[in-house]
Amino acid sequence: MLRPQDSPTRDRKSLNGIWSFALDREGSGRADRWFAGALPGTEDMAVPASFNDIAADPAVRDYVGDIWYQRTVTVPRGWAGERIVLHFESATHRATVWVDDTEVMSHEGGYTPFEADVTDHVTPGTTVRITACVNNSLSFSSVPPGVIEDTPDGPRQRYWHDFFNYAGLHRTVWLYCAPATRVQDVTVVTGLDGSTGTVDWTAELATAVTVEGSVSPVVRVSLADAAGTEVATGSGESGTLTVPDVHPWAPGDGYLYRLSVEITDGAADDATVLDSYGLNVGIRTVEVRGAEFLINGEPFYFKGFGKHEDLEVIGKGHNDPHLVHDFKLLDWIGANSFRTSHYPYSEDVIDYADAHGIVLIDETAAVGMNMGLGGGIFGSQGYTTFSAETINETTQQVHAQAIRELIARDKNHPSVVLWSIANEPESDTPAAEAYFRPLFDVAREADPSRPVGFVNVMLAPHGKCRVSQFGDVLMINRYYGWYVNTGDLPNAEIALAEELRGWASDGKPIIITEYGADTLAGLHSVTPQPWSEEYQVELLEMSHRVFDSIDEVVGEHIWNFADFATTPGIMRVDGNKKGVFTRDRRPKAAAQLMRRRWRAGN
Ligand code: GCB
């Protein structure tokens, strides 16, 4: 799905700001037609933000159910004659939307965009009411999964992933206009041959109902370099542009060309431009060859983090100052990459990574599909991961759709080099194999140009995992020295090396997608004890000695970039403290260690 933009033929209006807000504690809002007028008992809510921490009220923070958002917007008079589209960059975890009294769309999945053509429901020059009923509950039909359990004090949401279930309108809501005949989608795939770059493009058009005498639309594309100089042109709904003396996009060098896709009302030079859409294009290649991960034909070593969208007060709400600041910190520490653990991040983040040469592993929200882990660490026991009553074919369909929507959204981003279709699911059982095999096919069908993998959990070591066979890359999370060999780094080192040597025998590149230790900033100890800053440093140093001794290890992503919020638990102190930075982005001692290692080129 194309992101809304301003162009010579398009205009957009952000609906961010203060919305009316109401929790639907009785679950009666739909039956009582709350969309048909002002919300009852209205409070204020900021968009974009998670609603949970804004109110400073536990009954709001832990609320499960329907959450109503409403505002009015005046549709610009100048949009008359255009198609008018209402676009949500996300609504976590699902939403139904009305324009005045008319339901216009519903969407499942909390981290990908959705939109509806609302032209027939609005009149340019007048004001309309927009109402969104967002729902934050997790079930075995959602990704990520969860259950709502009855307790004496009412329903409680349980889930098996280790981050707080923040919800709401986390990203920008847009109203935009575009011509009836317009660019509906564009796909680019880039190539390199020596100093020549190629850009294969495919444009999908939406065309106005043809009226007698109308001309057939013609697609023209042109590519400009970063200075704005045109370097290649083409025409047709698909084709290949050739760029001599190409400046490739590369890690650390976010060089972007700008592809302009135009629809004209004929082939003549003076034909009228009906629609124009611009897309940033980074020309690069990605390839897995043997146990190497190649970007532009060069071996690439991933240095960075698993991150979260997680901030004080606004939760998972997108925030530009923090976006810029986090990227400054990535640069300061010498990181070249991160994983969008454990869900698709805001498109602002992906765009920014493109422009700053940061490499991304792009992940779906399929996390917490592992009841083995849930029993021990995250609280809920007594479920079987894959069964007719738990994670089943319906979940698999929702998961497949989540993969398709992630790829549809992010397929054109040069920063994205690898799809991660799940984090730490159960993967050592025949049921897991049956569940995941078709999902790898879904990803490869949606994008044949990038490698695909999933993130393996410690409970499914080499020789037991039945899903890693489907991945192009092995992504593995290991906590030697933390969850096992706690406080015993010498034995942790032996065990980690032994396990990694097993994985290395598969002959695929290995990315360590998580390793680390919870660390309370300011806690020091002469004899490094778990939770101290010294222990985090020593655990990382131990891990690096092992990684550096195994050629197949092509990356290290520390868990986590920063401390983050979780559900309450006896293993969590005000959240997960495995950050190299605190939640408010102060460096722990490990940050200096990593800065020395990564900036020295290791
Ligand atoms: C993991 C999970 C991550 C957790 C982390 C931890 O393996 O992938 O979501 O936060 O461990 O700190 O336990």
Structure description:
- This protein has 602 residues and is an alpha+beta fold.
- It contains nine helices and 32 strands.
- The chain folds into three domains: 168 residues, Sandwich (Jelly Rolls), CATH 2.60.120.260; 105 residues, Immunoglobulin-like, CATH 2.60.40; 297 residues, TIM Barrel (Alpha-Beta Barrel).
- The protein is 19% helix and 31% strand.
- The strands form eight sheets. The chain has an eight-stranded parallel β-barrel, surrounded by five helices.
- The two termini are 38 Å apart.
- The mean pLDDT is 96.
- The chain binds (2S,3S,4S,5R)-3,4,5-trihydroxy-6-oxo-oxane-2-carboxylic acid.
- (2S,3S,4S,5R)-3,4,5-trihydroxy-6-oxo-oxane-2-carboxylic acid (GCB) binds next to loops.
